[in-house]
């Protein structure tokens, strides 16, 4: 009788271990799917870029600098006085530093980058330097005309 009871307990224990192992594997397998689904829902964040009376939409990068900029914009729109530099970009102080992960980059018209951690640069031409990418203007129609040849005031805000 003791042997039958012991055997039954071993079988029950083995089934319990197998069942908990299966449920653990099922849960682990489900977690990445939930994370992947979450990422797909948040694949792209946009911001509005207002230059004078012209408004453009920019797709934001998926990095710490862009996330920090979004947090600033959620509190209030970020307005920057930007000066023309060398006839291909506008540069302005952000007034604070953002996390940076500079890499050698060749920029093009519409690129928005962070320079030295505290300056935003928007391009209407091309340059090669070490920057952290923040975003890119989606549609460049009227971009160069809006920026003009002199200094400009640019307002960045979260697109809702």
**CATH class of the largest domain, please?**
Mainly Beta
Q: Structural class, from helix and strand content?
A: alpha+beta
H/E element string?
HEEHEEEEEEHE
- What's the shape? globular
Give the number of helices: 3
Multimeric organization: single chain
The tally of structural domains comes to 2
State the end-to-end distance: 72 Å
Strand content: 35-45%
CATH architecture label of the largest domain: Beta Barrel
Mean pLDDT: 80
Summarize the structure.
Helix content is 36%, strand content 37%.
Describe this structure in words.
This protein is α+β, with helices and mostly antiparallel strands and 160 residues long. The protein has two domains: 1-43; 46-158, Beta Barrel (Cyclophilin), CATH 2.40.100. It has helices spanning 2-41, 64-75, 143-147; strands at 46-51, 54-60, 78-85, 89-93, 103-107, 111-115, 119-123, 127-137, 152-158. An eight-stranded antiparallel beta barrel has the order 1-2-8-6-7-4-3-9. It is globular. The N and C termini lie far apart (72 Å). The model is unreliable at 1-42 (pLDDT under 50).
